[in-house]
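can u do me a favor
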């Protein structure tokens, strides 16, 4: 399975990454994504980076991070060291958040998840952050905001698409190259995501900012990930433009589905790689099942 052949990069050394969040053990979907990225780097004599995206300190656990290393090594993968852990680079992300505040493209949103779902005419049904992000609004009136801040109320920092579009002179010029399931040029359409949450009062900058900052800091030329993350690319492209960061090539691959036809997810308690090991399944069998040659 010569996945890497589709990734020949003429602009310099190919560099990609696998970036799990240690909120649970890895499953077959993670294995497929990691192997896809690793093979692409290996067959192009490029770089493969493992990044630990542990910005959510309420759900991330050291044992899950250790488990990710164990699972990936079991599959036969290797990676550059030291591994970048996002929890160790918060000043970088908060500096980016401060830049966006200085640009006037952020506003405080005091609405709760329940309130946002009510506005959308739906009840909360999962833990996917995207469920409550398709919201376009604006800051509360100055006096109301001052009162809420004085009371110490929690808030999220939202990126105002209206302000961002004005600052960038429109979104039409924001493009990137897709090399995945439907290859070709793409143009940013962040409107479908609304004014996305990019940070919170209690934790600072969130995943979306951290990922674009890290991709630039680590010199990533290609982002290899599941097609379920394709919609977020438009917002990442907006952030790259606002923060004056380079734009990688994106490659979104198919998802590994469970017996019920749904994508595998930690919250649905999909069978983990650790579970498979305990049952006596070998790494070679997993690689073969996913369409990869033995290590």
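np, heres the sequence
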């Amino acid at each position: 399975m010569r996945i890497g052949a589709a990734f020949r990069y003429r602009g310099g050394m190919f560099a990609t990454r696998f970036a799990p969040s240690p909120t649970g053990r890895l499953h077959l979907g993670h294995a497929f994504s990691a192997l896809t990225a690793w093979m692409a780097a290996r067959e192009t004599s490029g770089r493969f980076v493992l990044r630990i995206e542990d910005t959510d300190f309420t759900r991330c656990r050291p044992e899950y991070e250790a488990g990710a290393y164990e699972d990936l090594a079991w599959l036969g993968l290797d990676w550059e060291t030291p591994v970048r852990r996002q929890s160790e680079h918060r000043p970088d992300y908060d500096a980016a958040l401060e830049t966006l505040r200085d640009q006037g493209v952020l506003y405080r949103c005091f609405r709760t998840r329940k309130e946002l779902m009510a506005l959308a005419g739906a009840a909360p049904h999962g833990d996917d952050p995207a469920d409550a992000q398709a919201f376009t609004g604006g800051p509360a009136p100055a006096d109301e905001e001052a009162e809420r801040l004085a009371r110490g109320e929690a808030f999220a920092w939202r990126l105002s698409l209206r302000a961002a579009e004005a600052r960038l002179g429109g979104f039409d010029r924001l493009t990137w190259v897709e090399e995945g399931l439907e290859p070709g040029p793409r143009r940013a359409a962040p409107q479908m995501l609304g004014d996305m949450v990019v940070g919170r009062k209690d934790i600072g900058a969130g995943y979306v900012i951290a990922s674009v900052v890290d991709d630039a800091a680590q010199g990533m030329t290609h982002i290899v990930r599941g097609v379920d993350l394709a919609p977020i690319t438009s917002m990442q492209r907006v952030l790259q433009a606002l923060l004056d960061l380079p734009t990688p090539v994106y490659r979104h691959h198919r998802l590994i589905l469970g017996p019920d036809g749904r994508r595998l997810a930690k919250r649905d308690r999909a069978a983990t790689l650790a579970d498979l090991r305990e049952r006596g399944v070998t790494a070679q069998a997993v690689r073969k099942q996913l369409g990869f040659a033995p290590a």
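Confidence is low (pLDDT under 50) at residues 1-11, 122-132. hope that helps!!
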